[in-house]
Each structure stands twice: as C-alpha cells, then as structure tokens.
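Please go through this protein, sequence plus structure tokens, and consider how the sequence yields the tokens. Keep your notes short.
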Amino acid sequence: MKKWIAMTAAAVALSGCAQIPNYQSAVKTPPPAALVGNWQSKGPQKGLVSSEAIASLIITPAGDTLDCRQWQRVIAKPGKVTRLDDEWVNVNDQVRVMPLELEGGMLHYDKLVLEKVSQPTSECQTALDDINNAPKAEAQPTVKNKKSHPKAMRKNQKS
C-alpha cells in the first residue's frame, strides 16, 4: 500500500500540473500575435464527444482565454496563456494545463486541431460576455486568530 501511495505522489509531482499549484499563481502572459484570435474545430475530431460537437478557443492579446465546447449544451472555461518549460500553454481555472502548438495555420490544442475564424460562435460569444460581465470575486480576508475546536481546548486545559 505504501508503494502505491509513493508512486502516485511521484506521478503527481512529475506531471505538468505540479508546476502550477493553483490558477492564481499562473502568470498571464501576452501571447504571440499568431496565437491571438478565435479558433474553432472543423468537422469530427477525436477530442470531442460527438461528431456534431464544436470546440472553440478564444485568445485575447492580453493572454485571457475561453475554452468553449458546445454540443447539447455549452461548457465555457476561462483561462490564461502562460509560458511553461519554454512552450506556450493555456491554464484554465481548474488548473488544467494544455499546450498551444501552432503548426502552419492550424492550432493543436487538447487533442484538437483548430482553425482561425473571424468570430466565435454566437453561443461562445454569449458565454464570453457573461464571464466578462460577471462581478469580480474579491479576495477573502484571512483569519489571524483562528479558534480551536472546543474539545481540543478542553484537552489542552487538562494537561
């Protein structure tokens, strides 16, 4: 059992996600001009759940991204572009790290091949507008004098 735990811990430590512990620690970096724009899948692809599904990736000049997948519903995940181990990657708000590899006019991303399009689908544009218009979450204040659980306090008093 201990070997299994050690091997799992080693695998997590060696994975790409281990280098970015949380979304806030990923540094948003303006991407090269060739990556900026609206990217969309064409036709059926292995990385999509259905041959009718559409994948879109919106990359802004500032480095913000929106990974938008639509089939029976729209799933939109905001993210940001950053450099990791000398390559451009997209880190989404769930700390999933996916390389952005430009080959000719095609973008290879998350088992998908995307082409640049002039504008996102109306569903992805609506999702982007909703995210941009959502109130920004404020940082939670930290508690300095955290009280112990009453049982723990009683145990400490008995000693």
In short: The helical segments are 2-14, 122-133, 150-158. The chain is about 20% helix and 30% strand. The domain at 23-133 is CATH 2.40.128.500 (Lipocalin). The two ends are 36 Å apart (CA to CA).
